[in-house]
Write a structure and sequence with these properties.
Number of strands: 20
Number of domains: 1
Largest sheet: 16 strands, antiparallel
Oligomer: single chain
Number of helices: 11
Distance between the termini: 20 Å
Structural class: alpha+beta
Mean pLDDT: 76
Low-confidence stretches: 1-30, 88-92, 97-108, 282-286, 345-356
Radius of gyration: 25 Å
Helix content: 10-25%
């Protein structure tokens, strides 16, 4: 068999495997974690990586060799934990190291330090997986498909709910209750002069207006998460205009949601809504084998509770393969969730902290994002959540074969979960030899600190196999404190 025939067959088998994987429920996908694009995922996105950013760049693809025809990828994934709380260098290890003793060994000063650390701090967690994708270009046309998984969560607390989460009944927040409940269920008037040990002996608290109490507890807090799976297809065409080439494109998404939770308080009124597939419970998670349901009945538990759609439009003006200007309007659309609107009883019956190991900030956020932590009652409700329209503008320039510079800006709705409001970025792409590409960027999301993403890609040549690794912020290498930990990786990608 000829070598080229064998190579072609291997490609076809690999693509078939990826398409099968696309049907497997995986983790979540966050498009901000696009690999190999530094701080400019829109301006440098191409082939199937342009989906979700600018579909016009399916045919443009600035990171690909000029004569590329096809691309296939999978197993591209990333994760990011961001919080201003993580910038406190003296407690960095205690936040991320589970083996740093048990909570019973902590002194009162340790508890107070932890509460002070997390008060008025924003915590954001993102994770994503590109399970399968492919794109094809012929003449002036190009098409692309991707299957992605997307998870994002955020939490922001003032002092009172942090005391509830971390210290349970031992916190000063107990003073908010009119009466306290004993082991036997008897109500004792809260005189306000109980010691810390006496407070721990009570099993709950009663307030005349329970809804008002919870609204007061969460008045300045933000809680939310979403988990969505997206099937996206896009098409692009290149138009010759003298020395310029105009690329136009459009893409559409089928959005399937497995989980959504949002808590916000406006003018003293609490609004809490959640929608979860039956797989979002401990028993269902325990039956998973290697992250995949082990039977058809278990797989049914992960059926979507949200369905929606999305649209993206974009254009690119390219001049003689030297520089380009790119613009896009993306994330038009909405998702309809079938879930529950939460309310509370007049009694909060759990004094103990819902977080078993509060030395880990991830566990704290999971406890905070559980409706059972805050609410006792729920009513069925269907709610439509907009995707949040995003406006983007960027561009770049080639400097020979070894250097490329790009920049971009984006604007979205900061009130929606995971949105930054304003995002600015710049990237330098360096190719010292044809089989190595290095990207170094600078980005800023909303009011967050500057990031310096950097990574490298190994290629078999101008076209062929690619793999690589990228850090979302390399400042962790030299700064004692760091507000973000994150990475991106690509295991398999083939361009030919």
């Amino acid at each position: 068999m000829e070598h080229s025939d064998l190579t072609s067959q291997l490609r076809n088998v690999w693509i078939a495997i990826l398409l099968l994987i696309a049907g497997v429920h995986g983790h979540a996908q966050n498009q901000y974690l696009s690999f190999g694009t530094g701080g400019t995922p829109m301006a440098l996105g191409g082939d199937y990586r342009a989906l979700g950013w600018n579909p016009a760049q399916i045919s443009f693809s600035p990171l690909n060799h000029a004569d590329w025809k096809s691309a296939a990828g999978g197993f591209e994934f990333g994760a990011r934990l961001s919080s201003t709380a993580l910038s406190r260098g003296d407690i960095w290890n205690s936040l991320l190291n589970r083996g740093n003793g048990s909570i019973d060994d902590w002194s009162g000063d340790d508890w107070n330090q932890y509460v002070d650390l997390l008060t008025n701090e924003s915590i954001t967690l993102n994770a994503d997986v590109l399970t399968a994708a492919s794109s094809k270009k012929w003449r002036n046309w190009a098409v692309a498909y991707s299957n992605t998984q997307h998870f994002q969560a955020e939490a922001y607390f003032d002092a009172t709910p942090i005391q509830l989460l971390v210290q349970g009944g031992g916190g000063e927040w107990a003073a908010l209750f009119d009466s306290l409940l004993t082991d036997g269920g008897a109500a004792v008037e809260n005189t306000g002069d109980f010691s810390a040990e006496e407070l721990l002996s009570f099993q709950g608290g009663i307030n005349i207006n329970g809804d008002g109490l919870i609204a007061e507890l969460l008045q300045e807090s933000r809680l939310g998460f979403s988990y969505q799976r997206c099937h996206t297809i896009g098409i692009s065409k290149a138009w010759k205009l003298g020395d310029f080439i105009l690329h136009t494109g459009v893409s559409g998404q089928l959005i399937l949601g497995n989980g959504y939770f949002s808590v916000k308080t406006t003018d003293g009124n609490l609004d809490a809504f959640g929608a979860f597939s039956n797989g979002f419970n401990y028993d269902a998670l325990a039956t998973l084998q290697n992250g995949v349901p082990n039977s058809f009945e278990e797989a049914r538990k992960w059926g979507p509770v949200g369905q929606g759609w999305g649209l993206d439009f974009g254009g690119v003006l390219e001049f003689k393969d030297q520089f380009w200007i790119s613009t896009a309007i993306s994330d038009l659309g909405r998702v309809q969730w079938r879930g529950e609107r939460y309310s509370v009883n007049t009694a909060l019956t759990t004094w103990a902290t819902p977080v078993e190991d509060p030395t880990n900030v991830g566990d704290l956020m999971l406890g905070a994002l559980s409706p059972n932590t805050w609410f006792n009652e729920a009513a069925l409700e269907t709610r439509v959540i907009p995707n949040g329209i995003k406006f983007q503008l960027g561009g770049g320039m080639h400097f020979g074969k070894f250097l490329m510079l790009a920049g971009e800006m984006a604007f979205d709705n900061p009130d929606l979960i995971g949105n930054a409001g304003t995002r600015l970025g710049a990237t330098a792409v360096i190719s010292p030899v044809r089989f190595i590409r290095i990207d170094l960027g600078l980005s800023k999301w909303g009011n967050e600190t500057y990031r310096i993403p950097a990574g490298f890609t190994i290629r078999s040549g101008n076209k062929g196999f690619e793999c690589g690794l990228q850090a979302t912020d390399i400042q962790v290498l030299w700064k004692e404190s760091q507000s973000e930990i994150g990475f991106r990786a690509i295991v398999m990608r083939w361009v030919w």
